[in-house]
Amino acid sequence: MSLKTPIVEMHTHPKRVLGVLTLVLAALVLLVSVGPAVAQQAKATRTAIVEADDLVIDLDKDTWEFTGNCKLNISAGHTAQMTAPRMSVQFSGKMDQILQLIAHGAVKFHVVTRPNAEGIRRDISVSAQKQAIYREAAQTIEIIGAAVADISTVGAEGEVAHITGDKITANLKTSQIFVDKPHMKIETPLKD
Hints:
Blueprint (H helix, E strand, L loop, with lengths): L13 H27 L6 E5 L2 E5 L4 E13 L3 E13 L6 E7 L2 E6 L9 E7 L2 E5 L4 E14 L6 E12 L4 E5 L2 E5 L5
Antiparallel strand pairs: 1-3, 2-3, 3-4, 4-5, 4-6, 5-8, 6-7, 7-9, 8-9, 9-10, 10-11, 10-12
């Protein structure tokens, strides 16, 4: 058949059409039955989403400057959110992950940790006046400049640890918190 042959002049044997339809149907059935198994074996991901009012991109340096109402959302076994007036983001060369993010100015960070060995999750809210640095490879966030943290247990009423320090570092991999020059106050409600 030449390319100039009109489609209406093409002739196909009915048995051949039936065979092609059978193959397509079999492939669809296989795809539907194997699809969930493949999806379950998919690699776990860590997702980071940045939102802001404005963005300036320097492609030569792989840096992105977000300004105005900046928000970083992280999902990776824990949920975390950081807000600041300005965020500088450095991506990998393939732009498939955030290597580092620096939040400038008054920063707020909130995380609900993944469950520990006893199934306990912590709710942590941290703020600081200077900046915060998020490092993807280490999964750490440093909150710098008159840092304040409130830590409570998810699902438990009452007890809250209030911590202040020059710098608070949260390790999202290990669920550890490090405080430079700490001052801590714990409030526990009294039972009647």
